[in-house]
């Protein structure tokens, strides 16, 4: 019984961490969307922000299904959000290259958070599959911003 509670606690911690990461990423993409002058990049960032909000909702649903205690939106204090808040004013009027670099950096951190979650070995199969699906999307977005960053450096 104690072991099961410990595992549930660890899974809850993983889910809360990923929910926080997704909410931070959502906020970061909304900040980037406001900073971009390029209409296509604005729309792309809004699309990714919406995707991350959806990911957080899916993770919250899974936490509720496991009868764990998912965080509420007021508990978000992640390093990504803090980082985006610090650069928000700096991104206003920033170059396309600087905004893309910040998106790439943030996505690298998001990708690492998903990798940590997947490496726990405690996730039930259905939850692991959901997190893997989300990770695949996060990785694609990171790869996109990495490619954009490299193309601007060339």
Structure, briefly:
With 154 residues, the chain is mostly helical. It has helices at residues 2-35, 39-65, 79-91, 96-118, 125-153.
What overall form do the CA principal axes indicate? elongated
The biggest sheet, with number of strands, parallel, antiparallel or mixed sense and barrel status, is: none
Q: How many strand elements?
A: 0
**Share of residues in helices:** over 70%
Number of helices: 5
Task: Please tell me the overall pLDDT.
Answer: 85
Structure overview:
This protein has 154 residues and is an all-alpha fold. It is built from five helices and no strands. It has helices at 2-35, 39-65, 79-91, 96-118, 125-153. Helix 1 packs parallel to helix 3. The N and C termini lie far apart (58 Å). 32% of the residues are buried.
Write the layout of secondary structure elements.
Elements lengths: L1 H34 L3 H27 L13 H13 L4 H23 L6 H29 L1
Helix pairs in contact: 1-2, 1-3, 1-4, 2-5, 4-5
Tag the structure with descriptive keywords.
154 residues; mainly alpha
